[in-house]
Amino acid sequence: MTKPSTKTARTGRPGGFSRAADAVVRRAIALCGWLAIAILGAIFVFLLLNSFKALRELGLWPMVAGTDWYPTVDPARFGFLPSEVGSLWVTGVALLLAVPIGIGASIYLSEFAKGRVKNVAKSIVEFMAAVPSVVLGLLGVAYLSPVIQRTFGLDSGLTALTAGVVVGVMTLPTIISISEDALYSVPSSMRQGSLALGNTAWQTTYKVVLPAASSGIFAAVMLGLGRAIGETMVVLMLAGNSGLVPRLPLEAARTMTGTIAQEMGEVVRGGTHYSVLFAMGLVLFAITFAVNLAADLVLERQRKRWRR
Length: 308
Fold this sequence. Notes:
Helix content is 77%, strand content 1%. The chain has helices spanning 6-11, 13-57, 60-65, 81-112, 115-130, 133-152, 160-184, 188-196, 201-212, 214-229, 233-238, 256-263, 272-307, and strands at 69-70, 77-78. A two-stranded antiparallel ribbon has the order 1-2.
């Protein structure tokens, strides 16, 4: 019995099978990509169709710029501004807390932490991402809200500041993980070159590594922004749900996500109020889509930069 030649082994049936399998896998991956785009488009169409009644009767701009949210009076007023400003306060507080802490933690994990300490710290960050938001909301109600009430002498501790602090904690894993990946992807040769020129480890970090990873860190912040502005449960439990435009983060507020979640179960299906909530969801979808698209463009820019 003769053995197949090496050429036959390389170009015979197994090779043809591998090429066919490779083609099938590539088509399956491409199909998944197009399917994701189709789902995104379907979500947009679904929101647009359900908000069409509100857009036709009230108009988009009067709703976006309206200052009054009184859906039960006659005539009803559906101004999004209280929810928009409330979302901005909560998101702003969350990012003020999460960005410096998140970037600092990612620098420590990428540049200074070693061995078991690094592994334990990364596990804790991953565990933070798995904690249900309702649990963090309960902790905020039990411990953070009374502290803020006593500290600032408020009637209630349920404010945009309280919700923003907890949302900031929820945003930390996103910023830390993506920033740490961006810092880790900086070539070691750049660090070694900086150290060879006499820079210390910290000088190498802020003079070389941080500028090189700045695009990825920016993308992490943008994705954290998208995470914060889309949070619902915590703001429902901690923001106070006031229908007025909050002038300060120490006032009760409501967010766009909180308004939709709170009122959707109480409206008449197919009515104007029902359609207005979908229009608010459409505005929120456009905001989060723009934020995530900007972050993706920045990430792609960084990938092209390191391929050179």
